[in-house]
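Feature request, filed as a ticket because there's no other form

It would be nice if the structure record came with a short human-readable summary line next to the tokens. Right now we just get the raw output. Example of a typical job, pasted below so the devs can see what we mean:
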Amino acid sequence: SDNRLLSVNYGEYQKIEGDDYPSEVLILTSENNKKTSIELKFKKIDHNATVRFPFTIPDGYKEIVLNK
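Raw output as currently delivered:
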């Protein structure tokens, strides 16, 4: 009833350390005749790599918690 569509298409897969990973992902969305497409192409995948996303809330702002 909201006239929304989401489609995720996976391209060819590549085997890395015994596991299969897509080398391409195409995400298509539409809502009320507005369309968005996102195309991801992976040239290199680091299997089980440690990643960090350090972030601090700037002065003057407060943290908000969204309930699920």
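Something like this underneath would help us a lot:
The CA atoms of residues 5 and 30 lie 5 Å apart.
The chain has a mean pLDDT of 91.
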